[in-house]
Design a protein that fits this description.
Strand 14 (about 410-415), helix 17 and strand 15 (about 440) form a beta-alpha-beta unit. The longest helix is centred in the C-terminal third of the chain and has 21 residues, at about 635-655. The chain has about 725 residues and is an alpha/beta fold. The strands form four sheets. An eight-stranded mixed sheet has the order 13-12-11-14-15-16-17-18, with helices on both faces. A seven-stranded mixed sheet has the order 1-2-3-4-5-7-10, sandwiched between helices. The chain has a three-stranded mixed sheet with strand order 6-8-9.
Length: about 725
């Protein structure tokens, strides 16, 4: 017979006839368990009760199970509280961290074994609770995921995660396998890496397995690091083998981040190494200090905003029209079997759709299908797929040159060249065959959707889907609404993007939309600095050290200067046609000179870089210095970094002003996932609202002041518009 205490608690306490106490994590006020004050108080009380009962009669308790009543095991720390913390709150943040860990340490050191029964996601604080137990059993289910992803939010695992992982796996494996990349593991992978000890097939088996382990291991009441004679796996920092390797850690981290400063990764490395040469409790305090420094500074707030709140909002349908039933596509016609079309076909087939991949001939379409086969062969070779799964996916793709094969398609995605006449032609070819209410999508990076919609007979069902290359890897899709696009079409498009497991952002129609328009300013700024006499390698290093994934001149070669010239010409003509005045960007001069020199980029085998016969990039072209002589006076390195980021940010503000983009979440996620805006800034909108000036002031006003400094030195293109100045002066912000 069990006894239960009925109180307002986030940790329920139940003891059965065998003396097994189950602590059930169950916050009565939230759908998920978090490390809020109720949890802190409840865990303290529960552990205190365990200690009291054991002190009175140690035989009254035989073991402890930590379980959860929620769908997730435990969601982690309260991120909203963290985003509100300032430097004045440092002492409080440190005290809270120490308080949370103190009770987990008490739980860990009970004289009876403790087992974690993990029924759902255990990320961050959830896994840290489990790590304080002596044994971890997880359900091997599709929704169960484990890991310490704090680094992706600009934080470190400050609930004991760094301290215990290092002691459990060793410094090298702990850092590389779990901590520095913030990997999230499915149960079999978690078992393999060692962060769980046992798997069960179903929820029904979980608690019985936990009880069985307790009964079979009554003496397992001590974690290895608390046992006499414990030695850290792989050695501690003073061990000769590790001491020889340890100095390479910072260099490896710097190489991994391409010189960009990610404070969280550096803090994790420091806390792990410093803590590894100390006793457990001292290491735990070191961990709390590093966590506190991250929490009270702006970097973590920027990343939490983008990678938690913004991403969560988008994934939950914030940008989708409300009140429209969810929709799933079943059969998709992909028009064009080039690299983009082939990638789209693969992504749709992977999501379970029946795919008709159409090109001008069966032969061309078959080449597009071969792209999927190549990707699947690699997956099979790496053990991520099987021959059977490969065959099933390929069977869902029909490669054809026959428009009639699209009969029954409820979705059409066009992915032919950026030519309005060609796009209209391929839609016309299939119009009579597809379903009369099929969603019509155009994959375009720059052509206005409203104009393209004139080429179809159902403009209300027509919408832009801007995929990024390579489609199978890039996580973002930019959805573009035309003037006549209906809310139903937008909702369907949103659902399709999520159906193929990608992240959607929604923007309004304009030339270049949001992502293509904004990245052009960053690329042009890199080339403008080249024209001003900056060292090419300095420009490249400034790009990666700012946090961009690829150097700007290298990126320009990949994007192709011929395409840039074409887009620039179309933009100029459109501006003049609409009665505006086109202002030529100084970077355009570089494009023209490079094309005159016959160096259009990687596609032509010659650009800012040289390429070997196999198309591999070698080094920066030696003739670049002759075409763009290096100046005796060099641009300050910080200005180089700022110019690229501010160019994109100022243009993002103009996109808000013009109504092209209406959501800061879309701007942040779109700029990071789509065009590589530095992740540690939280995205283009958060970069402005979270900008920290040289004087320590944070916000739009500080951003505007720095933009004015850049404008005074490098040109009016950096000057904020009156709209942005007014937003800064009135304390306004971009719509969420």
């Amino acid at each position: 017979m069990s006894t239960t205490t009925e109180t307002q608690t986030a940790v329920r306490y139940d003891k059965d006839a065998d003396g097994i106490v189950t602590l059930t994590l169950d916050d009565p006020n939230q759908s998920a368990n978090t490390m809020n004050q109720l949890y802190v108080d409840s865990m303290k009380a529960a552990v205190g009760r365990l200690e009291s009962e054991l002190a009175a009669d140690e035989s009254s308790i035989s073991g402890v199970i930590v379980a959860s009543a929620k769908k997730t095991f435990f969601a982690g720390g309260d991120l909203r509280d963290m985003t509100r913390a300032t430097k004045d709150d440092a002492a409080s943040v440190f005290a809270t961290s120490e308080s949370v860990k103190r009770d987990l340490r008490r739980l860990e050191r009970l004289p009876k074994p403790v087992v974690a029964a993990i029924n759902g996601a255990a990320l961050g604080g959830g896994l840290e609770i489990a790590l304080a137990c002596n044994h971890r059993i997880a359900v091997d289910g599709p929704k169960v995921v484990l890991g310490l992803p704090e680094v992706s939010l600009g934080l470190l695992p400050g609930g004991g995660g760094v301290t215990r992982i290092v002691r459990m796996l060793g410094l090298q494996d702990g850092l590389m396998s779990v901590l520095l990349e913030g990997k999230q593991f499915k149960p079999p992978a978690a078992l393999k890496v060692g962060i769980v000890d046992e798997l069960v097939a179903s929820q029904e088996e979980l608690l019985p397995a936990a009880r069985a382990w307790l009964k079979a291991n009554p003496e397992a009441a001590q974690n290895p690091w608390d046992a006499p004679g414990y030695k850290m796996p792989g050695g501690n920092p003073k061990s000769p083998a590790l001491a020889a390797f340890l100095p390479a850690f910072p260099a490896l981290l710097r190489k991994q981040t391409k010189g960009a400063v990610y404070p969280a990764a550096r803090a994790i490395l420091s806390a792990a190494v410093e803590g590894a040469s100390r006793d457990f409790d001292t290491a735990s305090r070191i961990e709390s200090r590093y966590l506190t420094n991250l929490v009270v500074n702006q970097g973590s707030k920027n990343m939490i905003q983008a990678f938690f709140f913004d991403l969560q909002a988008i994934n939950s349908g914030k940008l989708r029209p409300q009140g429209i039933e969810p929709w799933r596509a079943t059969k998709v016609g992909v028009l064009g079997a080039g690299m983009m079309g082939a990638g789209i076909a693969y992504s749709c087939a992977r999501a379970g759709m029946e795919v008709v991949l159409k090109d001008v001939s069966d032969e061309n379409a078959a080449k597009g299908k071969a792209y999927s086969e190549k990707l699947l062969d690699k997956a099979v070779a790496k053990g991520r797929s099987t021959e059977e799964q490969k065959s099933e996916l390929l069977a869902r793709i029909t490669a054809t040159g026959d428009p009639a094969a699209l009969a029954g398609c409820d979705l059409v995605i066009e992915a032919v060249f950026e030519d309005p006449a060609l796009k209209a032609k391929v839609f016309a070819e299939v119009a009579e065959h597809v379903n009369p209410d099929a969603l019509l999508c155009s994959n375009t990076s720059t052509l206005p959707i409203t104009e393209l919609a004139e080429g179809v007979d159902r403009p209300a069902d027509f919408i832009g889907l801007h995929f990024f290359s390579p489609v199978d890897k890039m996580p973002l899709v930019e959805i573009i609404k035309g003037e006549k696009t209906s809310d139903v079409a937008l909702a369907k498009a949103y659902d399709v993007v999520q159906q193929i497991r990608k992240t959607p952002i929604v923007v309004n129609d304009s030339r270049g939309f949001y992502t293509s328009r904004v990245i052009g300013f960053m690329v042009n700024e890199g080339m403008a600095m080249l024209a001003e006499g900056a060292y090419p390698w300095s420009i490249e290093r400034a790009t990666t050290q700012a946090g961009y994934p690829a150097p700007v001149l290298q990126l320009s070669d990949e994007l192709n200067l011929e395409l840039m010239a074409k887009i620039g010409k179309a933009t100029r003509e459109a501006t003049e046609r609409d009665g505006g005045t086109h202002v030529e960007h100084p970077g355009n001069v570089v494009v023209a000179k490079m094309l005159d020199a016959g160096r259009a980029g990687r596609l032509r085998g010659a650009g800012f870089y040289d390429y070997d016969e196999a198309g591999r990039r070698t080094s920066i072209w030696s003739g670049l210095a002759e075409l763009f002589p290096v100046s005796d006076t060099q641009i300050p390195f910080q200005d180089m970094k700022d110019r690229m980021m501010f160019a994109e940010a100022v243009e993002t503000a103009k996109c808000f002003e013009e109504g092209v983009i209406e959501s800061a979440a879309a701007a942040n996620i779109g700029s990071i996932m789509g065009i590589g805006f530095p992740p540690m800034t939280g995205g283009a909108a958060q970069f402005m609202t979270g900008y920290e000036g040289a004087d320590g002031e944070i916000g739009l006003a500080a951003f505007v002041r720095r933009a004015d400094e850049l404008a005074a030195t490098y040109g009016d293109r950096f000057a904020p518009t009156p709209w942005l100045r007014n937003l800064a002066e009135t304390g306004g912000s971009f719509p969420a």
